[in-house]
Design a protein that fits this description.
The protein is 75% helix and 1% strand. By secondary structure, it is an all-alpha fold.
C-alpha cells in the first residue's frame, strides 16, 4: 500500500486475533477478501429495495391511496443523501475493533432489531409507526451501506477491483431481488410478519463473516481531513467531471429507456406475472451472472473495451424495443431485449464501480466511493421520472429511438474520458 500517495499511514502491529487494528494491511487472502465483499453487498440494498420495491406495492394492495404512497416514497431522499454522511463514517471509528467493521456490526444489529419490531406491526393499521420505523431503517441503512463502501476500498488491492466490483454488482442485484421481488413473493404467501423476519435473518450472513474479520488499519494522516473530503472530492477536476458528467451521460440512455418499459408492456397486454418474471427475475438473474464475468473481463482487458462493448450492446438491445414501442413486438424479442438491456446495464455498473473505486482515496474511502454511487441513485430516480413524462408527451417510439442515440453518445463520452484519465484506459490502479 502506497500510504504517502493516498495520504494514509498503515499500521502493522500484531496481537491477538479477532481484533481489527492488529494486522497488516493486505494480510487477508484473496478468497477471504472476495468472500467478505460478497457477504456484505448481499445485504447492501435490502432496506432501500424493500422500501421502494415492496412496501409501496403492499400498501397499495391493502387500499392505501396512490397519492399517499407517492408521498411516502419521498422519504427515500434520506437514503440517497448518504454521501453527506461519508465524512462521519471516515472520521469516527474504533481502531481496536476495526474502523468500518465497528460501523457495520452496530448498524446491522440495529437493522435486525428494527425489522423484528416492524414484523410485529400491521403496515396499514399502524401506518404512522410503520413509516417512522421505516424512515429510521433508511437512515441506518444509509450509514450501513456507506460503511460497506469504505470497507470495500480498504480491503481490496487495485488488482482485485474489476473482479470485486463484478461480485459487488451481482450481490447487490441479488440484494435488490431479495428486498423487492423476493419480499413481495413471500408476503403474498406468508404475510407481513414472516417476510420481515426473513429479511432480518439474511443479515445473519454478514454478521457471521464480520465477527471473524480482522480489518486492516489505515489511519488518515490528518484526522480532520475527512471532514474536508466531501468538498475536496468536487474540487478535483477529474473526480468532479467523472461524477457529475461522465457517469450520468454514460447511463442516461439506460435510464430513459427503462422508464416506460412497464407501461409499454401493459399496453400490449402483458400480465403482471409476465412482467415480474422477465423484468424482475430473469433480467436480474442474468444481470448478476454477467456482472461476475464483466468484472473478470475488466481486469483482463482494461477499462476502454468494456465501454465500447456495453455501449453497443445496450444500444442494440434498446433498439429491439422499437416494435414494442409501436404497439407490437413478439414475446421472445421483447423479453430478450429486456434481459440483454439489464445485462448491459449490470456490466456498465461494474465498470462504473471499478473506476469509482480506483478514484477513491484510502483516507476517505467511504466518502469518495459513496459520492458517485449516491449520484447514480439520485439521477436514476429523477431522470427516470423525466423519461416517463417525456414518453407521455413524445410517444414511446420517439423516447426509445432517442435513448438509442443517447446510449451511443454516452459511450463515446465515457470512452474519451477513460482514455485520457484512467491509466491509458488499459490497466488498473495507475
Amino acid at each position: 500500500m502506497r500510504g504517502t500517495e493516498h495520504g494514509v499511514v498503515p499500521e502493522t502491529t500484531t496481537g491477538p486475533p479477532g481484533r481489527a487494528g492488529r494486522t497488516e494491511p493486505g494480510q487477508l487472502g484473496r478468497a477471504h477478501r472476495l468472500g467478505v465483499i460478497t457477504a456484505l453487498f448481499l445485504v447492501a440494498d435490502i432496506g432501500y429495495s424493500f422500501f421502494f420495491g415492496a412496501l409501496g406495492t403492499i400498501l397499495l394492495g391493502r387500499g392505501v391511496s396512490l397519492g399517499t404512497v407517492a408521498l411516502i416514497n419521498l422519504l427515500g431522499v434520506v437514503y440517497f443523501s448518504r454521501f453527506l454522511i461519508g465524512p462521519v463514517i471516515d472520521r469516527f471509528g474504533s481502531v481496536r475493533f476495526g474502523h468500518y467493521r465497528t460501523w457495520l456490526l452496530s448498524t446491522q444489529v440495529v437493522l435486525v432489531l428494527l425489522l423484528v419490531v416492524l414484523a410485529g406491526l400491521d403496515p396499514v393499521d399502524n401506518l404512522g409507526p410503520t413509516l417512522v420505523l421505516m424512515t429510521l431503517l433508511l437512515v441506518i441503512s444509509a450509514f450501513h451501506d456507506t460503511a460497506i463502501n469504505g470497507m470495500a476500498v480498504r480491503l481490496l488491492p487495485p488488482s482485485d477491483y474489476g473482479v470485486a466490483n463484478g461480485i459487488q454488482v451481482a450481490a447487490a442485484s441479488l440484494s435488490i431481488l431479495i428486498g423487492s421481488g423476493g419480499a413481495l413473493f413471500l408476503y403474498s404467501h406468508a404475510g407481513w410478519t414472516t417476510t420481515l423476519l426473513a429479511l432480518a435473518a439474511v443479515f445473519l450472513i454478514p454478521l457471521a463473516v464480520l465477527a471473524r474479520l480482522v480489518e486492516p488499519v489505515v489511519r488518515p494522516a490528518n484526522r480532520s481531513e475527512p471532514w474536508r473530503a466531501l468538498l475536496s472530492f468536487f474540487r478535483q477536476r477529474r473526480t468532479a467531471v467523472w461524477t457529475l458528467l461522465v457517469i450520468p451521460v454514460f447511463l442516461l440512455g439506460d435510464w430513459l429507456a427503462s422508464a416506460p418499459q412497464s407501461a409499454m408492456l401493459l399496453a400490449v397486454d402483458w400480465s403482471l406475472d409476465e412482467i415480474a418474471l422477465v423484468q424482475y427475475t430473469l433480467a436480474v438473474a442474468a444481470q448478476a451472472a454477467v456482472a461476475l464475468v464483466a468484472g473478470a473481463l475488466i481486469t483482463r482487458f482494461g477499462r476502454s473495451a468494456p465501454v465500447v462493448v456495453t455501449g453497443v450492446v445496450g444500444a442494440v438491445a434498446t433498439a429491439c424495443l422499437l416494435p414494442l414501442a409501436f404497439g407490437g413486438g413478439g414475446y421472445g424479442l421483447t423479453a430478450g431485449a429486456l434481459v440483454v438491456m439489464a445485462v448491459a446495464y449490470g456490466a456498465k455498473m461494474t465498470w462504473v464501480s471499478t473506476i469509482s473505486m480506483e478514484l477513491a482515496r484510502k483516507s476517505s474511502a467511504a466518502t469518495d466511493y459513496t459520492i458517485p454511487m449516491s449520484m447514480i441513485g439520485m439521477c436514476r430516480i429523477v431522470l427516470s421520472s423525466v423519461g416517463l413524462g417525456l414518453a407521455g408527451v413524445t410517444g414511446y417510439p420517439v423516447m426509445i429511438a432517442s435513448s438509442v442515440l443517447v446510449t451511443l453518445a454516452g459511450a463515446a463520452v465515457a470512452l474519451a474520458w477513460t482514455r485520457r484519465h484512467v491509466s491509458g484506459g488499459t490497466t488498473a490502479g495507475g
